Amino acid sequence: MTMNTPKANRVHIGFFGRCNSGKSTLINMLADQPVSLVADVAGTTTDPVSKAMEILPLGPVMITDTAGIDDTSQLGQLRIAKTHELIKKINLAVYVLRSDEAFTEDDKKWIEELKLQELPVAVFINEIGAGESLESESIHKGKESTLSRSAELYVSQHPELNTLATVIGSGNFTSSTNRLELLDLLGGLTPLDAEEDQSLLSGLVNPGDTIVLVCPIDSAAPKGRLILPQVQAIREILDYKGLALVTQTEEIPALLLSLKNPPKLVITDSQAFEEVNALVPDTIPLTSFSILMARFKGKLKDLVLGVNAIKNLKPGSKVLISEGCTHRRQCDDIGTVKIPMWLKQNGYTDLDMTWTSGGAFPEHVEDYDFIIHCGACMLTRREVLRRIDVAVVQGVPIVNYGILIAMLHGILERAVSPFKDELQ
């Protein structure tokens, strides 16, 4: 089901505008359900509110309501800061204006900020006070725009608007009269990164190929389910008409003996790299879910190059370990326990370590000597690329969990060999 598409793999659409511009009302109308709280009181929306839905032909999307960009309440600056944070993660921006209010410098500043992030920006005009007869007054312009006569007048009175964004629709957001029309217009937009063919196993699986997935069931494994990268890998193997064989580490020898032909690829949890490497013959390609995520979400070449800087670490070196999720820490947690342990076993002792999780990632990392990042299955590709760029621009080596673990266990060359052509 599309509603089960992981949040990180959806097209993220942010809705922006001033307080009481109609952002929440528009989202509720498009979603055809009360997603956001609506009231005449300015500043009703505080923290960003998200809703997963399907908008064709975009497919699975995540739409997010934000606080008003002119929130002057006691917590207004904190709310606006959260809105700024959202800009770094979305693929498409919708800016909402009211037909009875002028286009302001605040509006201009925010649309310019969205454009600076290379985001496509679509403007919807809220026809305040428009009645059910709006549709009969609309001027239809095919897929590109559907504006009422009063909205056309609004645009003509504010010519700078069209130089900043695309005004694609207008309507009475309290009415569902032109809901499908506005959904169609929104679905026809091209989000940032849409041109990239993103796939976890792209180029690695052909019809009939056997892929072995090693999924250890230990204290870190979620009860009753697999982790997201494992599920994604299984689904993609099925999409490519391949054969997915799922096993635990200790069952690998029996599984390999049962096969008439060796598997095309073995993919393991990075934490089991050492054991799996010993059990899988060198003639069979081996990698990890985390390295696949590095390839899928980020820049694999930069992350592989980044691991070489580990030799420069010495006692007192500052290391940032960052995770994209906020799971409850286990006694053998990979980020806070296992990676520090493996670093110590390889002679990297007395390091000054800092941890972040979820949406937290510092904008200024120049004081760090090394950054270790998780596979980022819970983050959008745009956010992962941004974090890598933050590190690279500020001259700080950054590496992915799987790449680091492979290097610390002496099997990095084998673990990245399936992608050798991409690393040239």
UniProtKB/TrEMBL annotation:
The Hydrogen maturase F tetramerization domain, residue ranges: 303-418
Domain Hydrogen maturase F dimerization: 200-298
Ranges for domain G: 13-126
Keyword Iron-sulfur: no
Top-rank taxon, per record: Bacteria
Gene3D superfamilies: 3.40.50.11410, 3.40.50.11420, P-loop containing nucleotide triphosphate hydrolases
One Pfam family of this chain: HydF_dimer
NCBIfam families, sorted: GTP_HydF, small_GTP
Protein name: [FeFe] hydrogenase H-cluster maturation GTPase HydF
Organism: Veillonella absiana
Gene name of this polypeptide: hydF
